[in-house]
Structures are given as structure tokens and as C-alpha cells.
Amino acid sequence: MSKQPASERRLGVYVCHCGGNISDYVDVQAVVDAVKDEPGVVVAKHTMFACSDAGQQEMEEDIAANDLDGLVVASCSPKLHVVTFRGVAKRSGMNPYEYNQANIREQCSWTHTDDPAGATSKAIGLVRGVIARTRLSEALEPLVVETTQKALIIGGGVAGLRAAIGLADIGLGVFLVEREAELGGWVGRFGPIYPHERNGHELISSLIEEARKRPAIKIFTGAEIVSKTGSFGNYAVGVRVATEPPQTIQIEVGSIIVATGFDSYRPADGEFGSGMDGVATLPEFKELIDAAAGAGLRYRGKPVRSLAYIYCVGSRQPDGNEYCSRFCCTATAHASIRVAELDPNVRQYHLYRDIRTYGAFELLYTQARKDGAIYVKFPDDAPPVVAADKSGGLTVTVRDLLSGDEELEIPVDLVVQVTGMVPRANTDLVGLLKLPLGKDGFFNEIHPKLRPVETMVDGVLIAGACQGPKSSAESVASGLAAVTQSASVLKKGSAELDPLVATVDPDACTWCGKCLDACPYGAIEQLSLNGREVATISVAGCKGCGGCVPVCPENAIDLRGYTDAQITAMIDGLLQEAIA
Amino acid sequence: MTDYDALVVGSGIAGMESALKLGDMGYKVLLVEKEASVGGRMILLSKVFPTLDCASCISTPKMAASIHHPNVTALTYTEVDGISRDGDGTFKATIRRKPRFVDEAACTGCQLCETACTVAVPDQFNADMVARRAAYIAFPQAVPKKAVLERAGTSPCTYTCPAGIKAHGYVSLIRSGEYEKAFQLVLEATPLVGTLGRACYAPCEGECTRGSLEGTLPIRRLKRFAADRHYQAIDGPGVEVAPANGKGVAVVGSGPAGLTAAWQLARRGYRVKIFEAAPVAGGFLRLAIPAYRLPAEVVDQDISNVTGIGVEIATDSPVTDLEALRRDGFDAVLVATGTPLSTSLNVPGEKLDGVVSGLQFLRATRLGSAADLTGKRVVVVGGGNVAMDAARTAVRMGATETTIAYRRGRQEMPAHKTEVDDAERDGVRFSFLMAPVEVVDDGSGKVTGLRCQRMALGKPDASGRRRPEPIKGSEFVLPCDTVLVAIGMAPEGSAFGGRCASNANGTLVADPATLQTGVPHVFAAGDVTTGASDITRAVGQGRRAAHMIDRWLRGEPLAGFEMDEALPVVDKTKVLTRQVGYTHSTAPESASGSTVKRDFAEIEAPMTEAEALAGSSDCLDCGVCSECQECVTACPSDAIHLDMREQIEEVSVGAVVVATGYKLFAADAKPEYGFGRYKNVITGMQMDRLLAPTRPYNTVLRPGDGKVPERIAFILCTGSRDETVGNPLCSRFCCMYSIKQNQLIMGALPLAEVTVHYMDIRAPGKRYDEFYESAKSMGATYVKGRVAKITEKDDGNLILRYEDIEHGGALVQAEYDMVVLAVGVQPNREVDRLFSGDDLALDVYDYVAEPNEDMDPGRTSIPGVFVAGAASGAKDITDSILHAGAAAAQVAAHLESLKVPA
After folding, report:
1. Which of A363, A443, A449, A470 to mutate to test the interface with B (most CBs of B within 10 A)?
2. What is the ipTM of this complex?
């Protein structure tokens, strides 16, 4: 490749050690040496933690001292720190979009731990590519959109109801849409629930009462979401409401909280005795307990004097749902205590793998044992077998690791399948909201650790058990966390959006329609311009995915921040060594 | 209007999350963190489960945002001392900004202070596995990246020194091999480094915290060591002095007070001249203290420090006319003439030839003019240090029998115990409870004995000592040839023609704080104004006088100015409880004092370097910072200010978020696991540090011997689900962090075997169980059953005795290289002192109670006070984030409700 032309740009390049995450495998000094004389590079350094306060301070000082007009940090994935370093640029008076990040950690050091020399040479290529891209970067201004100070909550269970009240109390308007005719979800059907013995129906009734007191909350029951357009800050949602005849109304909201809850796992026929007389799932059993007050615990009219709980039905199964359902161990300990309260002579056998009464729920487990429940740990690969015995009862055969792996045959009146939570089947809504699902089928958050209620779609949040199994109180907490997240963007009344969107050159566009099909966000529309039909892109709707760019036969579309010229320069930079 | 909408106490992940989210909503937030950096515990972790994200990488954006957010004011190294609720539902909070001793604006985070610091303490940010310095930056990713100087108070040795010498400072410098710097640090106070290294009575050693263990540090001898090293290498002080300021000060008397004052003044640029009546300079240093304790060369070396910076000393030059000095161009005069007069016995026969004052005897001995005592019997009257010196000198001058006669008992003697012991070792006899009534002669004036009267001790007198009362008819004669009288000393009060007023006891009248006499340009310091004391106090007086004279000559006020504004002395019991273990280095005892040589050669042997290093290394660093001044010198931006003090501010806030987090279980509360005794038994937090990118050893190794472990065992539920330690609760995240560590260890040490002893594996969260399964498939072994006991082998390996439930329940013993105790959570009781007026209700396990946690997570018993994160019970990071988000929503609702007009 020919020698590159001199550049007018004044770039700063920082190669991060990431405390060893990078520098243990990539020779960061060699990377600096390789790029320090690239055209336009004025400052090239390595730094222990570029993201640390000190690292940021150093860059700010360098930008000021050297009058830099472009910044490159070679560190981790831009997902982690692009905002951090744009902030550095901004605080130093540089346009934030003059900053670009080279990922030499996830895409380099972590993937080539066995080849430091190769990792170093790859890192050099990656950094050169981003330097080349930055030489062609241009100042961009964020798009400011006015936001609607209202939110839509989908799902009127405990999480959705509590979130509605939370939003209203902060001064935001709420539309609460419930598919069923009644609000309340699962909790509304339950009697006392753990850990505080509060009655589920009563909890829900008081929430509904509170919600109805607040004029800012509009509730639609028997209603469903049928359409969604617009983008973060300004969504237009079509709701089919249960009027006679049903009609679709349009509502305008700034954010959407999805709180659609869960379904209870339904065992297949024959799975741990499913379908046999005397076998019930956990929610069915809870109803038996709720109905037992005064009458004693009865199953189909017969008193229950002994019962066996089989844990992890539909959970932690290598061939089924692999995940743990989190709430069921504690819910079962709680059920066991309630049964003992009804009749301390009922023999209760808990056939389990691990008891996961985490945190203070341990106290319920202890109480259940004090009340006389017998816990039997069975091997993961030898689950209990349920069979009908001659007397019309059931016999559960199980190996007990706690008593020297002895095989026990336990005759019981009732088998309770401790069934977990599964994602709700609502394909339409998933498609409508374009929300990604995890391997387990629950909605996926953007980051499971630090951003558990946000999703890939800006302004669409997930709360409660639709994100993963949760107790009632945990669902409420995540509902309120979603309130906070909504309010943190809506309360201001406006929001800034990334200007890294696609643009159309109307002179080149022939309106062939190919881009329209390629856009997953419905951001492209047809426009009559000076007598010609051309494509136009809504800046608020465009997510900058770039899907429309390569399909355009006329090369009429460019993506800001990733222009064709920039990408070509990046590739040249990346391959410089290989070609030279 | 309140100063802030919300106060968030604690900047761990929950505190940061609530503060940032409230800030995003537009509320003004004050975020208060007691440590030097925001970030709490998460920033210290290696990675997080189940994503294996690098904990620092995902923490730092939040940390940086906490201090950059336009609506969040973050104060680090700050405590909230009290919060009370006002009638209108808002709160007043008392905020105590602890002194960093570092100017945050000036500090650039360059860490030169850290490199220079001579004090090492356990690094709490590395789970105490390695040391950090007293001057430190919390950790590499600290936000803000500003240094802190940790000071628990003034160390007792330094605090007690009457001379103002930073004893802890020079000890820590010697420990660091900085012998010359140690010498220079003492020079900051006085030029008499060699002298005090020998003849000081070392009040510092009396206060040494180590004294309650195996014995005090040899603080005085360490000073002598530094002096010996200096004088072997360098003549004179080796310091720079300020340029001449054109003013002159006359110092009358060249004892310790006069020499110290002259030194201090000359360094400030004054022209100083010392007038000494005796033929040699040094006062009592040369003319009273015997050479076997303080050789003349040592005093001369110390004096050469003073003359080396231009001070002129005129010997044989008694001053009688203070006004003449003024006329000679001295702008101020310091009188430091000491107590050269002896108190007389006031008994018949005192004028006989064989009766000599102890002081005269000592002076004559040092000037070579003393009478030979060979074959003589000597009685020394008195019980003070001069009496001891006189008696021991008499022994050396040939006396066949030397007896000290004292009117009270041994316990009442004012002499220092070491002096009494040394006198006894020299063969001096003691005769207690007798008072002289007459010196008896043979009729020709030759002394033959001392008639004495036996005494009995009565009621305590004004000095607190029991008053001796004569026993009638008990008189007897103690036969002797010489009587040395050493019962007291007094200044020459009338020496200056009454120009300065005197007290009844002959001391000059001077203000005890400013040392100024009734004549404004005349100051008085040392024994001449205090009465007989000791060298070290005289040095302190000389130093004070110099400061005061300097201020007076610069026209600054004297009243109200204090010289050494020290921090309060540190509490020794706190120092002792702070220690995690004691090391005691023993160096071979020096040969000093083992054989008694009755001559004037110096008795005490110098310290060897090995002894000095061993002795100084025992220092417990009571005040943490030793005030050695190394950081002050090293800081390129003059950011270090030891005179910073805490600042108390009161702020009003609309709501409070308690995000004070949790404490980790103290693993030594399970003694059967040997934590703290077995070096290769570590906690889960320590293992996380070993695995972190900023790890202390750059790899996983066992602390006992640095070996890379091949077999590692984890013990889950250490301190959790355990009634024997009073905690029946599950700590919620230990299973998961252990599984994470299992995976990371197998990545870092592919050959290592990892075994986990568990009760139940609790992996109840999104992708948690899958994470457990992948650890199993990577090869970690999970054994159900509790570990009963760990024993340590000689090679540091550990034998675990446990039950293997899943394989028949047999009792098994297995050997491991290293054991990790998966310690759980304890409540942070610091919340107890946060609120006054209203009680913040705690649950039965002492976590902050949430009376309605089902519907109002984060709400506490006090309206307007919310709790976020693990302060309300064990939570992992995700649950803390959700909880903090929920708390923020409720805070916002509360703040909005305050806006509604009543």
C-alpha cells in the first residue's frame, strides 16, 4: 500500500491495559509504537484504566494541551464505554462524535489468550482501522426529542399495578392495559403469600383502590395492544379496548413498561405422575390450602393425611427448562407451614435437589422442618417415581441421599408437583414490541447485572416475572425500578438521541423500495420531493443499524459515523500490515 | 427549600444507582461516602456472576457518573454524623468531612506520596492480604483519584515528647532504612540529637503501646543510632538555613534550652550569639551529666550543628547587664541560664572542707579538677538524679564506699529508676529514711561522719509523697570522709540585677506560654524559669522560646498561638484491637551493662544496624501516619497539609436514602476453620481479590508460602445458616460468588482441582443455575456435607474432616493446598448512629426494617427515609440495583408529595 497522505487531523490515541485484562496478552507498548506515527496522530499513550477518573482526566488534559480534534480509545467493547469517552470529549470541548472506540478486549485479548504475538498484531490492525475511521469523522449534534410524559403499562398484575401507582405519584400519566377482564394477575388469585402472610386478593384489592384514586391512571381491562409506532419518547400505541363493539384507540406515550407476568409450568401427561388421581401442581395445591380453612385439607373430597412434594418439576431439567424457577422452594416451604397450621398431623415429605430458600427465606425452611416436614434429597439423575398403589393411594419411590442413599417407598394421599414459572405465550406482543427473548423464553434485559429492567429497545422496559421468575415482592421492586427508569427519561420532558442514523441522498435515490423492506424499525417512508418519489428516514425511528445501506442499489444511503468512506478507510487500516 | 432533595448515605452500587437515577429525574442529590473513593465493594470484585463481566469495567462508568453528574454532589471521605427530622417533614443532616490531609484540588493522583510514605498498614481494599501505605490512593480505579493520609491521631510517643520531637516519625524512617532522614527529622526540633539519644529519660518509651506487650521499642537508642550514623558520615548538620534577616538574638546560657533556641533562630535567618559563663559550652550536658552517660565528644558534635550554621558561642562570658546586649545590637534576648546553684543542707558543719555540693563535684570532675577520692568513704545526701550521678562518679573517682542517704524510701526517690538501678550495679549503697542533722569532724575540720536521724513516713504532703517525720532518739553517725550534697538546685535569680522579676524560689517570672518576661524583648526558657527539670523539657522550652521570639520580632501576636497543634493522642486500646497479628523481631541483645567498668568511658553500646531495624520494625504505628514528613517533601504540588482538620457542615434535605451496605462475616468467629491462624485459609473476598485484574500477587497463590495451589477447597455457608454464630439466615450470594470463583480458578490454573463443600447450592436467579451447571461441566466437584474441622500440616497444607452425604454419608479426610471460606453477610450496625429523634427500626437480625416490603420496598419506619440495597438484608448486585431503583421511585414520590401545598 502506498504511503498515506499527511492528515490535518489532531488525534489522541489511548491504549488501555484494562488492569491486565488486555495487557496480559496484548503488548500495549508495541501497539502504541506501531500507531504513534500514523497520519494525524498527535498523542499516543497506554493507560492502566482509561475509564478510571485518572485516565479520563489525563485525556482531558491532553486534549486541551494539544488542541486535539479527535479521540480514539482502544479498550473494551464500545457497549461498555462509548458513553464514558464521549463524555471525556464533551467535557474537553471536543464534539463527542469525534470519539471512536477500538475493541481490543472482547475482540482481541480475551479471544487470543494463547497467542500474545498474534493478539498484539491484531490489536495494531484494529487500532489503525479506528484511527483511519476517526480521521474521517465529523462533528454531529445529538437529536433532541420532546418526550411525552406518559407511560404505558402492559399487564395489570402486581408489578404493573404497583408501577402505575409509582408513576402517577411522580407526576407522570399512565395507561394500564390488562388483557384479562379483571386486574390482579396471579397474586390476585392467592390467599396468604410469603414472606409476610399478606393475603394476595387483599393486596391486589388495595392496589386497585389506590390506582383508581389517581386520575393520572387510565385503566383498560379486557384490552390488548395491537400496534406500536414511533420511537423512544413518543410512541403511538393502538389499544383494542373492550367496548361494545370493540374498538381500537390510539394512545401517545413516552415509554412502555411490559409487565406481562408468567405462566405456571404444566407438566406433560405422565411427568411425575401428572394426570393421575391425587397429583396436583403447586398453584392447584395452593388453592386447596386456601379452601381448607375450617374444612381441613381435602383433595376431591377426601382428607389429605400425607403428601409428598416433588421439587423442580419443569425446572433444572437438562431436556426441558434448564433454569431454576427461584420462587418455588420458598413457596413450598410456606405451603408446608400452612398445612402444618391446618393440621399438624399431616405427614409432609419434601423430595428435593437443593433447597433454595435464599436470604431470610431460610427462616421459612427452618420453620417447615420444625413443624415436622421431612426433607429427602434425591440424586439429580434419579428423580422420584409416582405410582398408584392397590389401595387407591399413591406411592412415591425415591432414593434418599440424606440417609445413606436408601430407597424409600412413601405412601401418600397427595403428590404436589412443585412447578415453576414459564414465559407467557404471547407471540403477538413479542413481535409487536420487537423485544428480544432469552434462551429461557423470558424477555431479555439489556444487561442482567446493572440494567435489569431496560431492553434493547429504548424506552421499552420489562418488570416482574416476564423478565424471569420472581416472587410477588420482587416483582413489585422491579416494577418500581422500571418506574424509576421511565421517570429518569420522561421527567425532563425531552431526551437526546444518538445522531448516528442513516441519511438518504435524494438526488441518487430512485425509490426502488428495497430499503423499506430492510428496515426493521419502520423508520423509512416515501416522500415526494420536487416531483420525484424518494425515501426519507425518520431520525427518531432509525436505530442506526445500517441494514438499509448495503441493499441500496444506487449507494444513496449513508450511515452517519459509519459512512462508506469511513468503513473503507477502516478496512484499509486494518489490513495495512497484511498488504504492505 | 432544602439544600438538596435527597441525601444518599453510602456509595456502593445501591447508593450510586439511587443517586444517579434521582439525579436523572432532576432531583438534587448529595451522595456521601465514608471511604476515599466511591464504588463500595463491587469495584473490588474480580468479575460478576453469571455474566463474568469484569466488575471494575462495569462499575467505573457508574462511579465516574456519580461525580460528574450535574445533579449529584459526591463527597468522599465524609461521614454522616446525625440526621434529624424537622417539623415540615424535611431533614437536617450533620456532615463531617474527614480531613484527607491532602488538598483535593491540588492532588493529581501521581502517587509519589504513596511511594515516599514510611508506614505500611493492611490494605483494606485488598482484604488485608497486602499492605498499603498510610498515604494512599484507595485503589487504581478510585474515583476521585485523590490521595488520603490516614491519621488515627497522634502517636503516644510523639504526643508525649516534651521536646516536640516526632518520635514515631524517626522510628518509621529508620525502619525504612532512611537513617539520615531520621536524624534530620530530630534536627527539626533540636540540634541535640546525639545528646538526647543518650541522656533523655525517654518519656516516649513510657507511653509506647508496645510496652503492654513484650516491651517498649528502644526509641531513645534508635535516635542515638541515627545520630551515630550521621556523625560518622557528616560533620555538622547538613541543613540549609534561611538567608540572614538582619536581626540578632542574644542567648544567655548554652545548655539544652539555649542551644535549641539558638539553632531554631539561626535556621530562620537570625544572627545568634550565645554567651556562656563556663569555660566550655553545653551547660549541664558538659558539666553535670557524667561522661560515662554522655561523652564530651557527643555534646561537641551536637554543638557543632549549632555553630555549623553560624551561631557564635562565647565561653567564659557571663552576662550581667541585659541592656548592654540590646545596645550591642541584639533585638531580643533569651535567658536560659538553668539552675547552677545547689540547695544547702542547713545543718551544722556544712562549711567543712569535706562537704561539697554534688553539682560542684560533678563539674570539677568533668573539668579535671576534682579531688581524688581513692580510699575515701563518701556519703551522698539526696535522692534525685544528681545524687545518683554524684554517687556513681564518686565510685569512679576511687571511693571505697559510697552511700546514698535519703530521707524517704526507695519508692519516693525522684531519680529515674534506671539511674537508681545503675547506681546499685556500680556498688553504691542506699540508706533510706534518714536525714542529716550534723556533719561531724575530728575537731581539726576533717570530716569523720554524718550524724543522721531516722525517719518514718507519715501522711502525704503537697507533692503527694509521704512526708518523712523524725523518730525521736534515733540519731546515729554514719562514718565518712566526704559528704556530697545533692538535695536540690536553684537558678541565679539575682544575676541580672533584678531587671527581670524573680519568684520566691529564684526562678525568673515569664509567661508559661509565651516565655516572655516583664521586659518585652527578654524571654526566659528552661530551668531558669521552670525550676530544675530535665534535658528534654529544656529542649522543648528552647524550641518554644525560639518560635515566640521569632513571632515577636516579626510583629506577630504571641497570645493564642499554639506551637504544635497535634491531633488528639490515639487510644492505645484501639491500636491493639486494630492489629490482626503481632510480629516481634528480636535482635541479639547488646552487650551493654553486662560487665561493670568503673571508668568514664561510655557504658551503653551503640545499636547495630540489625538491632535498629529489628527494634524499629516492632512499631505498631499507633497514629498510622508517623508524621515523618516524607510525603510532604515528595508531593510535587504541595498538596499535603498535616494541619487540615475535620469540617462539620449541616445540610437540609427532603429525603434520605440509607445505602450503607453490609459487613462481611468475620471468619475467625468459626475457630474450627482456623482463619487467622492457618495462613492458607482465606475468605471468599480474599479469593476475589486474588482473581481481580488489580490483584495483589498478579496470580492466584496461597499466602502462606506463595505456592500456586493445586487443590483448593471451598466451604460454603461460613457464618451463614449457622445458629452457632447467631446467624440463621442464608447470605444469598456466597454460593454464586463461589461458583464464579470456581470457574475463574479453573481458567487461571487449568491444572487445579476445585472442590466445594456445600449444604444446598443456591443458584436461584436468571441464568444462575445454568452457571452452576457449567462450573460442574468445567470440572469443579461439589460435595454435600459440612466440614467439621480443619487442621494445618507443617507444610501449610490443610486437612479437612467432613461428611460426604452423597456418597453414603461417610466421614472423610482430605488434604488441600488452600481453603476458601465463603463468608456471608452481617448487618452494618453503623446505621444505628445515623438518626436522632426518630428511631430507624431494624428487623430482628439488625438489618434496616421495611415494614411494608411487599408493596413498598425501600420504605423504612421513618417517613422520608428509604433504604437501598443490602442495608436491608443480603442482596446480590442485580437485586441491589432493583431495590435501589424501587427506593428511588419512592423517594421521588415522597419528594413530589412534599411539593403539594398543605
Report:
1. A449
2. 0.86
